[in-house]
Amino acid sequence: MPASNFSSADPLGHALLDYQRGQLDASLTVHSNVAEEEPLPAAYFFRSLWEMPELERQALDECRGRVLDLGAGAGCHALELQSRDFEVKAVDISAGAVQVMQERGVREVACHDIFAAPLAHEKYDTLLMLMNGVGLVGTLEGLEKFLRHARTMLAPGGQILATSSDISYLYEDEEGALVFDLNGPYYGEVTYVMQYGEQQGAEFPWLFADASIVQDYAEDAGYEVEFLGEDEQQQYLVRLTMRMERDA
């Protein structure tokens, strides 16, 4: 099916499908309320294991049991896990991304958001949220909601492996002091719009949660929190496990 058969509200899907069809220079433009617009090459979603940042490779090594890959994009993580004989279900809200994953050989794929009710009827040993995957929750309110929802999806002893970033550096003045409205929204709540050619998608929220926020929200929701690594871009990898399971 050609990319043009998809809704123009799915610029990511169009870009991934064009790349899959051989248009290797396909690239999105990302607009946000906190930074200048920037390109996002479709190739980024098709990375091999050794093209992935170290935190993502570490997360893949930490996976266990049945894996749910949330916000799976073109399926690079799911395919790597399949090659290691993991049972993986890959989920993305983009219909185009889902078609690309099916074409690339991801065995179990679904098209819906991370809060979808069907997920609550299945149990997973690992919930995987990479490429700043905490952002999928959208807002701090969404983070609280997702942490409750995730408890219904995790098998006994299950874990969430997720990456996020602290973007407070965007609010530093010339002296390095942080300048933002403490009475306003949390500075990590960002609004994005993706554009591919003339196709512009709907505005959507994305959460960049600093480590202390994740720790506070996760502990309040009954999780144990373990930070597994951090890189030079202030991105980190965290493991969340249900406290009652670990203490049992």
From TrEMBL:
Source domain of life: Bacteria
GO molecular function: methyltransferase activity
CDD domains in alphabetical order: AdoMet_MTases
Keyword Transferase attached: yes
Keywords carried by this UniProt record: Methyltransferase, Transferase
GO biological process: methylation
Stored InterPro entries: Methyltransf_25, SAM-dependent_MTases_sf
Recorded coiled-coil stretches: none
One Pfam family of this chain: Methyltransf_25
Methyltransferase domain: residues covered: 67-158
Name of this chain's protein: Class I SAM-dependent methyltransferase
Taxonomic lineage of the native organism: Bacteria, Pseudomonadati, Bacteroidota, Cytophagia, Cytophagales
